[in-house]
Each structure stands twice: as structure tokens, then as C-alpha cells.
Amino acid sequence: MHPLDNSVLPSLDELLDGQSLSRVVACALLRCPDDELPALLAAALELKQRFKPDVITYSRKVFIPLTNLCRDYCGYCTFRRDPGEPGAHTMTPDQVLEVATAGQKMGCTEALFSLGDKPELGFPEMRATLHHLGYKSTLHYLEAMCELVLRETTLLPHPNPGLLSAEWIVRLAAVSPSMGLMLETTNAALLAHDNAPDKVPAKRLRTIEEAGKQSVPFTTGLLFGIGESLEDRVDTLLAIRELHRRYGHIQEVIVQNFRVKPEIPMRDWPEPTRGEMLRTVAVARLLMPDVNLQAPPNLSAPYYDELLDAGINDWGGVSPLTPDFINPERPWPHLEQLRVRTESRGYILRQRLPVYPEFLPTITARSGLLSERVQASADREGYAGRAMAA
Which of 128, 297, 355, 359 has the greatest number of beta carbons closer than 10 A? Predict the structure, then answer.
């Protein structure tokens, strides 16, 4: 039986009417032969167009690597450092504000905070740094820096702090309109995470679920090519789909492909192929036809515009100022090039805020500085306002 046989793949109308793509069929579609790939892409693209026709979004951001000290040792990561290792750093408040202010002048609306997961639990040096800065923990420091950016600039913080308790989700939601945590995988036995206590899937699912209970607009996603099976990829997407169905808070799902770097333990691993990337994005769209779907363009260069054929509706955060500190060897495309290549496929490229338009009422219904900042940044449709967009 061919994966795209009508007896296997529900019709588009059935998908839109609520019939779910099953695990078995999703796995079969990931294995579809090349001659059936165009039909898979066409189905995914049609669902994307019914969801958000003719518009592709991106967030103009600055990347703020608050600290790259981390107690996790993932096999694919070049971001993390141990104390004393070349490149190890924790930014000062002045450095954070300097980057955010420079980004504001360049039309950025998002301050993406990336950092190691609770490094003070593993390193006395980080505890000393936090004591010097006047904070009890890395999360206390992150909270203060989000508030600093919110108060002193027009940028909106979007933190990616790792695992969070219910209390910390409440606290960070008061100073940021959205936050994120990549689920990455539901496979708890991957060698890539063998020495990464914060990458246990059950722990990450708890954080994502707790954000749902609190109606926090949340970004998560799949990282594939790190040793998981095709079934694992589908299971990860299904876990995200289930949480979104239960709470309605997943504002964005990222489909991220592993890229080799010479200095990582996994430097000899094969990268996902172009075909694997297209199939995975398309299956994600079929599984979640009403969720924003993003794929980073810099990780699929030079063919990243082909991802538009697979059903994405967002390019994610792109910075005119700061590099991708997670994948520094993969520069973001110039924003003008991104616009040209997006428009060449027949779409309009629009700048959004770190929180998607349909999730704005969750934020603006509140009182306080965060609500005021979001309302001032958004246009009538919920995208980045003309005064903000560049």
C-alpha cells in the first residue's frame, strides 16, 4: 500500500473537519518515496493556506545569550560552556541593555533570552557570579533582565530558560508575553542526552503542560536527526498536538533539523537530508493544521525557500544585529533576501511580535506594563506596528 493512497491518507476536507492523522499514517508519510513527495507537500501546503493564506511571518529580534554556562552536556551543542572554558560568559545588565537598545534602533521587537538550565546547581562559579550581581538564582536574574528590557526599551522579552516550576511560569509571564521550551524528543534513551538531566522528556512535558494550565503563549518543537527513529519524530509531534488540544496555548511549533559542527561529540553523525526535512515539516502540518509552524531558514540554506512548499507559515526569529549563538556557523539570511525569496513564492512577508496575533488578547486583557507595551507594539491586526516594523 502506498503512503499517499486514498485509503490511507484522509482527504483535506476530512482533516479540516477534525479527522486526525493517525500515528501509523504519519509514520508512513515520513517514509514516502520521492515520486509521492509532491503530493504530500501539496496536501500540507493546502492546509497551510486554509489556516493562514498568503502570509509568512517572522520576528525581528536580538539574541541575548544571558549565560552559556549549563549543567547539561548535549551531544549536539556548541552553545554551552563550563566555567573557565574559552568563551564562557554571563552578561551584565549593562550588556543586556546595550544589545536591546541597539536592536530597538534597528526595528527589532523581540529580545530572545537564551541561557543554560540552572547552571548554579552545577557550578559554584555561577553561584558566585549571581551573588555578585545580587540575585539568588539564574531565574531571578533572568526575571530582572526581562523586566529591565521591558521597562527601558520597546522590545518584548521571550525567554527560553529551560525547565520551570508553576511559580516561575507565573513570574516570567508577568515580564514576557510568551516563552519557549523545545520538547526536542519524547525518546528518553537517546545517547545525545545521556549526560543532560534537564532533557528528560517527561520533565519538559510537565513544563509545557504547566504553561498551558496558565494560558501562557508557548513555543516548542521537534529537534530531529539526533538519533531518534521516525516513530519518535511522530510521537514528539503527537505529544505537542495533545497538549495544544488540551490547553490551546501552543503558539508555535518549530521543526528544527540537526546540523553537524566540527567541535561537537556528534560531529560524525549524518545530517537529515533535504527530503527528510520537507517530509517532516509536511507531516507536522498535516498533524497540526491549525498551529503556527516554523522552520529556521539558516539551518536549511540555501534551499530554505522550499520549506514554504511544505506548509510552514513562519521563519522564526531573524536578527539584523546578533548572530545565532546556538548555530553560529549558520548565519541568518539578510532580511531583504528573506523578503525577496518569500515574495518570489507568492507570499507577503510580515513582521510579527514574539507573541502571535491570535494570542494577543491573552496578554492585553491584563493590566500593567507588559500589556501596555504589547498594545503599543502591535498594529490593528496584531502584527508589529508600522512604527516598530522596519
Answer: 355
| Residue (of 256, 271, 385) closest to 316 by Cα position | 256
Cell of 84: 573557565
Q: For the stretch 150-159, what's the b/e string if a residue is b when 16 or more beta carbons lie within 10 angstroms of its beta carbon?
A: beebbbbbbb
SS3 276: helix
Handedness of CA 7, 8, 12, 16 (dihedral sign): positive
Q: Is 376 helix (H, G, I), strand (E, B) or coil?
A: helix
Q: Please provide the size of the chain in residues.
A: 390
The pTM of this model reads: 0.95
In CATH, which of 3.40.1440.10, 3.20.20.70, 3.40.1410.10, 3.40.50.2000 is domain 48-377? 3.20.20.70
Q: pLDDT of the chain along its 390 residues, tens only? A: 344 554 445 555 566 555 689 999 999 999 999 999 999 999 999 999 999 999 999 999 999 999 999 999 999 999 999 999 999 999 999 999 999 999 999 999 999 999 999 999 999 999 999 999 999 999 999 999 999 999 999 999 999 999 999 999 999 999 999 999 999 999 999 999 999 999 999 999 999 999 999 999 999 999 999 999 999 999 999 999 999 999 999 999 999 999 999 999 999 999 999 999 999 999 999 999 999 999 999 999 989 999 999 999 999 999 999 988 888 888 888 999 999 999 999 999 999 999 999 999 999 999 999 999 999 999 999 999 965 555
